[in-house]
């Protein structure tokens, strides 16, 4: 009985949606393939970051918090001789920050490492491997001292 009472209401709602303005149909329609909800700015592609020069040092991102340096070395060792593998960890918790570095002995091994591990799973997470960029040389470090004004001694 309750279902029989709902049928007219459902058919009336379907008819109202079909007669609704296009804007409302876009909001409530489940067929999203015909409508683009993206703004025109979102459709333009952003320029890709410049690729780093090939080197023996790889940057690996997307690591699990539980990934260790030894686990990273083992995963990449199947593609060549690994000279060093380091997972960058948080000082307080000791867990991975989600990225690390792998250094191979030759350029050929590093290229095989990227081809073999980029986009693959490690410890349940998809990781990304690319050539590491060299650190940018910052301006010479100038420690800031606040001696330009006299010290504050409170109210006198």
From TrEMBL:
GO biological processes: mitochondrial mRNA modification
Region named Disordered: 137-156
Gene Ontology CC terms, in alphabetical order: mitochondrion
GO MF term set: RNA binding
Biased segments, Polar residues type: 137-148
Occurrences of domain RRM (ranges): 56-134
UniProt cross-references to SUPFAM superfamilies, sorted A to Z: RNA-binding domain, RBD
Swiss-Prot/TrEMBL keywords: RNA-binding
InterPro entries listed in its UniProt record: Nucleotide-bd_a/b_plait_sf, RBD_domain_sf, RRM_dom
Protein name (database record): RRM domain-containing protein
Organism: Capsella rubella
